[in-house]
Amino acid sequence: MSTARWRLIGDGLFAALVALGVAIRITGGIQGEIFGFRVSVTSAWRVFAWAAVVVALRHLIVPTRPLYNRAWTQKADVAERHVLEEAGRSRKNPALRYALLILFFTVTAALMLLPQVLAPFSVPDQGDPLFSMWRLAWVAHQLPRDPMHLFDANIFHPNVRTLAYSDAMLLQAAVGAPLLWLGIHQVLVYDIIFFVSIVSSGVMMFLLARALTARSDAALVAGILFAFCAFRFAHYSHLELQVTPWMPLGLFWFHRTTATNRLRDGLLTGLAVVLQGLSSLYFGMFFAALLVCLAVVSHVAGSASLRRAARPLLAGALLAAVLLIPVTVPYWQNRAVVGERSEFEVWFYSAVPADYLVPHRQSIYWGPQVPVRPERELFPGLVPVALAAVGLAPPLSAVRVAYLAGLALGVDASFGLNGVIYPFLYGWVPPFRGLRVPARFGVIVALVLSVLAGYGVARIVGRMKRPLWRHATVVAIVLAALVEARPVLALEPIWRDAPAIYAALPAGRTAVLAELPFPAPDDTFGHEFIFMYFSTFHWQRLVNGTSGFFPDDYLELRDVMYGFPSDESLAALRARGVEYLVLHRQFYDPSEYARATADLDRHRSVRLVTVGQWNDSEVRLYRLDRAS
After folding, report:
1. Summary mean pLDDT of the chain
2. Are residues 142 and 159 in contact, defined by beta-carbon separation less than 8 angstroms?
């Protein structure tokens, strides 16, 4: 048998044993029967020991370079540095190449999300997607009118800075504003940003992986894995968690900085952090932590000298601080009201090792027997894990050692208060005390796995001499990745228009509305997302609202409104400046709607303005007098 085959068998067996050991470590053991023989493996360390034996035997049979050697990694990193220095320079027909690349990811994304493409006015649920549409539309509405009060959104009246109760998604809003000004429907603007985010994430990962591996086929697989990663579809309703192209682009410029030590590259790295932070506050902080980890480990492993790269990287960090700090001012001002996330809340959204075996609801692996763990469905898929394991098989370069450390960072930080790293971040880095879901560090896991999978593909196809076999192997990997990743989408249509009854409100000024029914005390959201979506058609002020935080006066009002239309509830509405009441029969229990409208019709301080129809259901507009 040839040396190459022995090496391939040894590396494959090593990767399989490591994967088995990790599975045992997570699940606590594997038991069952194979061909009538009972198999029981409960010790992960025993499997890891066998993996070590395989490595030793493989090196005895096929002598090769050691697992890690500074001289060897420096030699390997010279080649990687040369590739990075050459990356971005002119090639033959670069515009055509990039156009074809974008076209490939666009067509692939359209096929993967075909139900969504065929039903653009549909959403996975009537919650976060409507919330994102409201955020996009509010920024577009407020920017040309009163940009100094951009964060004083129209919900939770009379509270201020309510846009900063959650991630403002300023970059997505800035991109969507011109489209909304042109009259494109807010649902379609949401769809466009969502779709472009996936396509651009794949393209940027392609650029990064090609720069690191010098192989377009490996880069294509890495781009597909990141564009359609399981984490993305686990958060299909969260627009801010889809905008991820700035991370692979930032890593590209980071590696360019360590290779060239140019100030321009360092500033571009910082700019990528800014763009990611403006897209998602969570991911901006997570990405900054990853960059710090990669810089330190790369230096220790011998890939880069921090002394040479420190100046451009610090310049990029300074640029990021200068551009991001003004945006965070409303969040710091809100700390007196919002406070910090409690340890219990953070712990609830802190993952445990077993969560990495839980597929998300849109996954082909999901079934009724899968436990429901909100925001903790972190199974990344078999294809990226297997390819990353091949990429991490010895010998390793310093860059891959750094990404291995980044993978460890992502996994451990996703454990939140159950891990080692996040308690330090929560205790000593103030911005992390405002984050609710440490498990979202799973995006860093997906990012790093995609990079390492690119290395794995490069290693696999690099050993194949025949082009036909290389192409066939890459096609098979791509198809396997797409089949595994394709989400099973369950969509529901969303209304293209709000009830026409809002046209009866006085023109030329902004009124304060109460949308009914109000959420019951034991109902967190009620129909508040829908009412916020309706407000994008009229932009009146609402005492209603929902976000990542609920102000105390809103919670008090919600308790009082349980008895609506009692005198106490009407007095509470007057105290908050409410002028009009809108009652939506569609969202009421029929008997409760009949009781509420009958009581309002008898009340002397409430006057019926008009009755309308919407979606085959009655809608009523009442005027609330200032005095009872």
Report:
1. 88
2. no
Summarised one tens digit per residue, pLDDT across range 20-38 is: 766 665 555 655 555 555 6
* Helix 263-279 / helix 306-333 crossing angle, nearest 10 deg: 30
The sign of the dihedral angle between the CA atoms of 249, 250, 256, 260 is positive
Q: How confident is the model at residue 298 (pLDDT cuts 50, 70, 90)?
A: confident
Global pTM value: 0.86
Q: Residue 327 and residue 324: Cα distance in Å, rounded? A: 5
Report the 10 Å Cβ neighbour count for 224.
26
Burial (CB count <10 Å: 0-12, 13-18, 19+), residue 295:
buried
The answer to whether residue 451 scores a pLDDT higher than 80 is yes
Q: Where are the alpha helices (DSSP H) in 153-185?
A: 170-181
- Assigned token pair, 506: 């006085």
Q: Identify the DSSP state of 519.
A: P
Give the count of beta carbons closer than 10 Å to the beta carbon of residue 181. 12
DSSP E strands, 396-448: none
Could you give the residue ranges of the DSSP H alpha helices within 34-185? Answer: 44-61, 70-86, 94-112, 114-118, 128-142, 170-181
The pLDDT tens digits of the residues spanning 497-534 come to: 999 999 999 888 899 999 999 998 888 899 999 999 99
Distances from the Cα of 432 to the Cα of 29, 72, 227, 428, 551, angstroms: 34, 39, 26, 8, 21
Token pair of 473, please? 């192997």
